[in-house]
Each structure stands twice: as C-alpha cells, then as structure tokens.
Design a protein that fits this description.
The protein is built from nine helices and twelve strands. It has 256 residues and is of the alpha/beta class. Strand 4 and strand 5 form a beta hairpin. GO terms for molecular function: ATP binding. It holds the Pfam family ABC_tran.
C-alpha cells in the first residue's frame, strides 16, 4: 500500500488560483480529513492529488511522483470518488461496480471469481445487494452515491480519495460507509484522504484533520486540535460548543 506526500501544491482554474502552497503528508494506512468552509478549495485539492487538475508543486505516491506513474499504475494506486459523478447510461449496479476491478485485469481478460467476490463483498457492506441488478438510472440520489463509492472501494487502490462521501446518505448508511473505509484502512493499509462537511463525522473517523480556508492551510492536527470553538468561529463564522463522545472524539454542537 502507499502513502501520500503533497509538496507546495498550488492549483486553480482558468487563471484563478484556488490553492496556494499546500503541503501535507499522509502515512500508509492513515486517514486525513480535509475540512473547511464552502469554497475553501477542498475538492480542488483532492482532484490535484488524483492528477485531474493542472497544478504546480509535487504529489508523491509511495515516494514516486504522480507524473511518473503510467495510467494503469495510477489507477491501481489511487481510487477517486467525486462528489458529483458522471454515471454511464444502461449499466446495472453490479456492472458499474465491476469497473472498479478494471485496473487489475490483464489485456482482454475477464473478471475472475476473486473479482466477483470483491464486488459482492462491497455491495453487501454498502447495503446494495438488493439493488445489484437495478439500472443506475433507476436509483435514488443516495443509492447512486453508494454505488459510486462501491466502485471506488472495489478498486482496492492503495490510496482512496473520497469527496464528500456521505452526501445524500442517511446517518445509518453514512456510518456504514465510513466504518467500511476504516476497516479497509486498518486491515489492508489503505491510505484515505476525504473531504467531509459533517465535522463530527470528520473528527470521529479521520486521524488528522487539515483545515483549509481561502485555499490555504490554516490548521492541521488531531481532531481535538483542529476542531476548536475559536477556529470554527474564525473560519466558519460559527458558534459552537465542543462535546465528546464516549471514545473521546469531538462532537460539534451548534449554539443558538
């Protein structure tokens, strides 16, 4: 499996800089949560790490520059689930999730029994088994989101980039998804970088948090270090109180 290192990364669109001088490291098997107000550059940072937007600076995967990885190598190394995916027309849920196994197949090879087992396992974990033969076009928004995440998880890449993975999910499915990601991280050494609007979930699952505002890192550390009333007031203009769950992780409570 692989770790990620980001060195002085800057990126933007059509001449407008969105990120400026971002540097961070995620060790193999670690989980970095990227948080920040709307427009802070969270999604752009994930896309830059995935090599989907032009940027300056460096992104290293397991010590190798991203640009040095061939297309298939990159697909095996990095799995990316966008916040707003473009879904192909006419595929069933199973067919779509099987696309996640493509980087592991040889030229003109078909999926093996092992590939089908991985897909079946992911579908079960994300409560999609009953929808396996349904067309993607018939799914609700939350069901489509789970299908997109299932494809990324089936890829079994060393690095998993998740952009707002709990969008559209109820609390039970959101927890099931994040539990599964955490299981892959602990058992397989998968390195996770995710953006999350829900700060309580971010603090409960990510080992470290990186707080972005206006394209720059304004705080980075443990959830308790990055989620303070002072930082949330400054960068979210939010009134909050920090409670704690039984395991000691922070719970963000809005204050009227």
């Amino acid at each position: 499996m692989s770790g990620i290192e980001v060195r002085s990364l800057s990126a933007g669109y059509r001449g407008r800089e969105v990120l400026s001088g971002i540097s961070t490291t995620v060790d193999t098997g670690g989980w970095l949560g990227i948080i920040g107000p709307n427009g802070a550059g969270k999604s752009t940072l994930l896309k830059a790490i995935a090599g989907l937007v032009r940027h300056t600076g460096g992104v290293l995967v397991d010590g190798r520059p991203l640009e040095a990885l061939r297309r298939r190598e990159r697909a095996r190394a990095i799995g990316y689930a966008p916040q707003i995916p473009q879904l192909p027309i006419g595929l069933t849920v199973t067919d779509y999730v099987l696309l996640g196994r493509t980087p592991h197949l040889g030229l003109l090879a078909r999926e093996s029994a092992a590939d089908l087992d991985v897909v079946a396992w992911v579908l079960e974990k994300l409560d999609l088994t009953g929808l396996a033969n349904r067309s993607l076009s018939t799914l609700s928004g939350g069901e489509r989101q789970r299908a997109v995440l299932a494809r990324a998880l089936a890829q079994r890449a060393g690095v998993l980039l998740l952009d707002e993975p709990t969008t559209g999910l109820d609390i039970g499915h959101a927890q099931a998804l994040l539990d599964l990601v955490d299981e892959l991280r602990r058992e397989l050494g998968t390195t996770v970088v995710s953006t999350l609007h829900d700060l309580t979930l971010a603090g409960q699952y990510a080992e470290r948090l990186l707080l972005l505002d206006r394209g720059e890192v304004v705080a980075e550390g443990t959830p308790s270090e990055a989620l303070t009333p002072e930082l949330l007031a400054t960068h979210y203009a939010a009134r909050t109180s920090i409670l704690h769950s039984p395991d000691g992780t922070p719970v963000i409570a809005p204050v009227r």
